[in-house]
């Protein structure tokens, strides 16, 4: 009977050690911390309703897992902070670049909105207004010159015709005057001859 009790105790101790190894293996696996705590509580012996008996080695495993998790999360937080600060720096660089681009765009817009003529800066509206006013004035001057030229040409033709008419009349008058003069000279000569005879 002693043999059977000893074998029963031996089997119980071996089963407990296998169960313990299984528990330790479960705790050393890559499960998350809440799951590890649930496994630890579920497989620990109860002393009474409010207390559980937990092996020191299991608590050390959980403690190591918690410390590893804290170290891992600390590294992740540091990495996230580093990424965040680099993102903030990148964002600030992008904002600075954007403000420079806006300034350059404003400068270029002013350049395109202004026209430089003979070293004078004109706004596009003023430039277009000035150009169209100049075109209108030059068109009026051109039209006035063309109409004046035509009028002068017409007047010149009329004056030329009048001068030709006057010249023709003058030639006619001169011819008639010569003829009359010749007639008067003949008459005078005839009268002189009659007297002398």
What does this entry look like structurally?
- It is a single chain.
- This protein has a two-stranded antiparallel sheet with strand order 1-2. A two-stranded antiparallel ribbon has the order 3-4.
- By secondary structure, the protein is mainly alpha-helical.
- It is rod-shaped and about 220 Å long.
- Helix content is 86%, strand content 6%.
- The protein has helices at 2-28, 33-43, 56-113, 124-196; strands at 45-46, 52-53, 114-117, 120-123.
- Helix 1 runs parallel beside helix 3 and helix 2 (33-43) runs antiparallel to helix 3.
List the helices and strands and how they pair.
Layout: H1 2-28, H2 33-43, E1 45-46, E2 52-53, H3 56-113, E3 114-117, E4 120-123, H4 124-196
Antiparallel strand pairs: 1-2, 3-4
Helix pairs in contact: 1-3, 2-3
In total, how many beta strands? 4
Euclidean distance between termini CA atoms: 220 Å
Largest sheet: 2 strands, antiparallel
The largest beta-sheet arranges its strands as 1-2
- Mean pLDDT across the residues is 81
Low-pLDDT residue spans: 17-21
SSE string, helices as H and strands as E? HHEEHEEH
Rg estimate, integer Å? 64 Å
Shape: rod-shaped
- Protein structure class: mainly alpha
Strand percentage, roughly?
5-15%
Helix content: over 70%
Number of helices: 4
